[in-house]
Amino acid sequence: xxxxxxxxxxxxxxxxxxxxxxxxxxxxxxxxxxxxxxxxxxxxxxxxxxxxxxxxxxxxxxxxxxxxxxxxxxxxxxxxxxxxxxxxxxxxxxxxxxxxxxxxxxxxxxxxxxxxxxxxxxxxxxxxxxxxxxxxxxxxxxxxxxxxxxxxxxxxxxxxxxxxxxxxxxxxxxxxxxxxxxxxxxxxxxxxxxxxxxxxxxxxxxxxxxxxxxxxxxxxxxxxxxxxxxxxxxxxxxxxxxxxxxxxxxxxxxxxxxxxxxxxxxxxxxxxxxxxxxxxxxxxxxxxxxxxxxxxxxxxxxxxxxxxxxxxxxxxxxxxxxxxxxxxxxxxxxxxxxxxxxxxxxxxxxxxxxx
Length: 355
Ligand SMILES: Nc1nc2c(c(=O)[nH]1)N[C@H]1C(S)=C(S)[C@@H](COP(=O)(O)O)O[C@H]1N2
Ligand SMILES: [Mo]
What we know:
By secondary structure, the chain is mainly β. The chain contains 5 helices and 23 strands. A 5-stranded mixed beta sheet has the order 4-3-14-7-10. Strands 5, 6, 11, 12 and 13 form a 5-stranded antiparallel beta sheet that branches. The longest helix is centred in the middle third of the chain and has 7 residues. 44% of the residues are buried. Molybdenum atom binds next to loops. The site of molybdenum atom has 5 residues, from loops.
């Protein structure tokens, strides 16, 4: 959990859920999330790694040679900086209970398990090519250096998740800076993976090893968890990788009846930008198209705004829905699953209008 200078748990602007903290915004949200406001999802405690002794190991039969990188060696490479969202697979889980009447276990996130940061590092493809990537390599197992994860007496080993070689070579980054500063301890210091547009668990923190294999690999983090379970989920359909399209409103009043109001919010989608956002101020009966303001890039949120008015005092229901650049929309009901992953239905906000 986040701590302040006196090592006290930091709770202002956060909702605390055990090891995890969720960002709580009031009103408009900045385009880039300050590191100290960024949500944290830790399976155990962050490990205290000595930056001088830190090594990233690239291993496995999918490489011609095993290689290691120190932090200084990584920093000597020509780096890239990209603004990208990072979102937990369970973001919005509370809404399975609130909107669909099907509470699901796990961290009870509202909508604050997402942030956008400027990440600095190198393309993973570069490290793989340097180690002599074999043409028959198919998976990259990313392994964290945090404590082994033990649940109900069962030791599941280190937090790790296999990444298909296609995504590894496409746009996955190995990063050591967040918003121009070294990664904070909670966010993976000294080095983490950043897998654009994919579920947060793919972006392994405190990255210790990248094991490249010529055979399929699995870990509990893509079989037991972070996979769809329950009725109707099997085979390829159950695999979780890319994040869905979502949107919400950030300015929720209170407003005054009869006065002009500008509603503002955000929309985002995994591996896609946003084509349109529609807003309803009457619980979804009628819809208006919002204007997209600011940057609009794939795997990053974009801001929207819409001028509206509320005629009558009382409680009003504001709903938003987005269309992404690959044609995906938000389903009216989010597909149910045992662990409450990927809530993607339009969120129904309650807005108070005074007389
Ligand atoms: N080694 C390691 N990597 C990890 C985790 C973890 O507990 N250990 N949590 C994952 C999950 S579930 C998410 S959503 C993101 C959260 O990243 P953040 O805490 O920097 O926001 O990190 C992922 N990487
Ligand atoms: Mo997560």
